[in-house]
Design a protein that fits this description.
The chain is mainly α. The chain has two domains: 32 residues; 55 residues. The chain is built from two helices and no strands. The longest helix is centred in the middle third of the chain and has 64 residues. The radius of gyration is 39 Å and the shape is elongated. Keywords: Coiled coil. InterPro entries: Ska2_N (IPR042091). This is Ska2 N-terminal domain-containing protein. It holds the Pfam family SKA2.
């Protein structure tokens, strides 16, 4: 029983020490942000982070639009190439057909 009480006292002392440490950290944090300049710099930092996030989203949207335009251009060029190839074959067949000796 005495050992359990001793163990309990040690646990209470450890907990008390941890609570003191947490209180000290909270106090240090509050003191660090008491000055208005620090508060303003934190607000500026938050605004900057928000602006960077917004810029990233805009850039990502623009990249998606550019990729879509590239795909449309590629599809259009492929269709035109197919059309030119078809015209070339048609003209070649006409030229080859005219140069054949005609039988009478």
């Amino acid at each position: 029983m005495e050992s359990a009480i001793g163990h309990l006292e040690q646990s209470v002392q450890k907990a008390d020490g941890k609570l003191d440490m947490i209180a000290w950290q909270i106090d240090a944090f509050e003191k660090a942000f008491e000055e208005p300049e620090d508060e303003i710099s934190v607000l500026r930092l938050l605004h900057s982070v928000h602006q960077v996030t917004k810029d990233y989203q805009n850039l990502r949207q623009e990249i998606l639009e550019v990729q879509q335009l590239q795909k449309q251009l590629s599809d259009s060029l492929r269709a035109q190439l197919t059309q030119v190839h078809g015209h070339f074959n048609l003209l070649r067949n006409k030229i080859v057909g005219q140069t054949k000796p005609q039988l009478k």
